[in-house]
């Protein structure tokens, strides 16, 4: 099955203790689509400016990502500049230039409207709903958001949350959205807003899934060389949603597997700047790391 | 098999956002012994002052903890005062009065010297080695330490590490001990100092085990009511070492199970102040939470 994603395509300038890159391909929808493309067909909805080079379009097409919904308008592409310290936990944003993203109103090509799986990356919750209205009969809808919308557009965000099946956010966002410092209580509050499943991303500490009173804890893959965490959350979402779109099985056991595939894609992504690592994986490497997660977490039951 | 532990017995005064307690029973060896007592016989080596009340001795004896090695000397018992914020991650120490602990030189009763499993809680690394020299033929030795010794008695600590099989420390201590911000690299460096197994405790994020090139990741149990994290690391060590002493099986599969039992005991401990929760568990509750950890971490392999 194929998956439609709306989000940003951007140029990132990133500095970490291990190097720096200038105006490389980035953006939530770019990372998401690339990660998801290993599992399913992806239809991308985003906006770029006249400065966006052909080589990046060629790359997206090489990953068989449908870019009919990638609108090009007069002006400059979204730019983000950030820096990480040795902890590599949270980026310090140095500069954000929305440019053409500022007035983005996503329009789905006719061919996208019968997609069954939808991912609304971190954009204005008003726009998230506009996108959703353009999809005829979605079977699975997931979204991301950020502190900017939680603080500034809370009411609209809550309306979006009523329409989604799965919310993926980080722990700080979960605390801010719910007003609860304890994550278990925060999760219960957030599930009461609408989503049946909440996934809390915790960076180097992995992810937690909350659903129908149950919790699943997945670790992050311990890596010895983390170069750049930019896009890790989007790659997590891409692997996660890509696997669900591929299997069209939304039972909890499959959602748990999807979380591991998300963790796998995030772990590859942080091993290099920009999309350098995830642009050319093979499915064997992905399966191999999934199996590594099995070994990483395995312990016997009490009858063994 | 029985287990000998050396560490502190103290009075703790603790304030968290959920309450406060004054001069309650605490100390690394107290938490450790109580947690371990659900799995094996425990022989305690520590020091108390003349102010230590009979009721606490009665409690320790009720847990079948051997207190022949609990020396009582003239003076006041060790006191610690700390406070936690809403994050409940790290205590802010407000006051430490070593009192009789200042001049403590642990002496093992003759009856302790043939113990096969030894835990050296966080004390001066010189004393850790003195204790070890008094044990005839230990089969498993583990130790804890802290930033105070890493910074102030590094050379002595490294000498102790050459003699231990398992080191249990937290992530900040692992980074400080190795000088490496990346935990995988930090672990490799620390294993080169001597211990065959390193366990890194990460509080609410669980624990990581490093051993012979392999890694095991255990989550912490997501709790909705964390009242007081004091002693969680010691309870982890107590459950972990207690289970190993009970089974006397030091293979990796059993070490992984022991890590889950450690996590179980830590999770119970933080649900109440002092030893209030772990002083009266039954083994059914412990097994039940172990099974909860199985459900919490379970995901299928790729052939399912």
Could you characterize what this model shows?
The structure is a homodimer of 304-residue chains. In chain A, strands 5-4-1-8-9-10-11-12-13 form a nine-stranded mixed β-sheet, with helices on both faces. A four-stranded mixed β-sheet of chain A has the order 3-2-6-7. The mean pLDDT of chain A is 96. With 304 residues, chain A is of the alpha/beta class. Chain A is globular and about 65 Å long. In chain A, 51% of the residues are buried. The first copy, chain A, starts with a strand and ends in a 7-residue tail after the last helix. Chain A has helices at residues 28-36, 54-62, 125-133, 147-152, 154-161, 171-178, 183-191, 232-247, 252-269, 283-297, and strands spanning 2-6, 10-16, 19-26, 41-48, 65-72, 78-83, 92-97, 117-120, 140-144, 166-170, 197-201, 207-211, 214-218. The first copy, chain A, has one domain: UDP-N-acetylmuramoyl-L-alanine:D-glutamate ligase, CATH 3.40.1190. In chain A, helix 2 (54-62) links the parallel strand 4 and strand 5 (65-72). Chain A binds chain B through residues 86-87, 181-185, 188, 202, 205-206, 208, 214-219, 222-226, 253, 256-257, 259-260, 287, 290-291, 293-302, 304, and chain B through 86-87, 181-185, 188, 202, 205-206, 208, 214-219, 222-226, 253, 256-257, 259-260, 287, 290-291, 293-302, 304.
């Amino acid at each position: 099955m194929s998956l439609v994603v709306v989000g940003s395509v951007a140029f990132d300038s990133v500095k970490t203790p291990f190097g720096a890159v200038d105006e490389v391909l980035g953006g939530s929808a770019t990372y998401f689509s690339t990660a998801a493309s290993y599992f399913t067909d992806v239809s991308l909805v985003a906006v770029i400016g006249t400065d966006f080079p052909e080589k990046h379009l060629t790359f997206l097409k090489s990953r068989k990502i449908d870019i009919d919904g990638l609108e090009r308008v007069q002006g400059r592409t979204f730019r983000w500049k950030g820096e990480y310290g040795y902890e590599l936990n949270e980026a310090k944003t140095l500069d954000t230039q929305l440019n053409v993203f500022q007035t983005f109103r996503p329009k789905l090509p006719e061919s996208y409207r019968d997609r069954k799986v939808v991912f609304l990356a971190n954009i204005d919750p008003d726009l998230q709903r506009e996108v959703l209205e353009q999809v005829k009969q979605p079977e699975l809808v997931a979204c991301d958001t950020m502190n900017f919308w939680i603080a500034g557009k809370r009411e609209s965000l809550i309306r979006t949350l009523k329409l989604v099946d799965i919310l993926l956010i980080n722990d700080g966002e979960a605390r801010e959205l719910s007003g609860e410092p304890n994550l278990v209580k925060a999760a219960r509050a957030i599930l009461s807003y609408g989503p049946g499943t909440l996934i809390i991303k915790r960076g180097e500490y992995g992810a937690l899934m909350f659903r129908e009173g149950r919790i699943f804890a997945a670790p992050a893959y311990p890596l010895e060389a983390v170069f750049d965490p930019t896009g890790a959350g989007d790659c997590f979402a891409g692997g996660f949603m890509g696997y669900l779109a591929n299997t069209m099985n939304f039972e909890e056991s499959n959602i748990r597997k999807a979380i591991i595939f998300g963790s796998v894609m995030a772990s590859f992504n942080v091993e290099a700047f920009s999309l350098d690592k995830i642009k050319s994986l093979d499915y064997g490497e992905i399966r191999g790391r999934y199996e590594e997660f099995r070994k990483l977490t395995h312990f016997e039951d009490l009858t063994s």
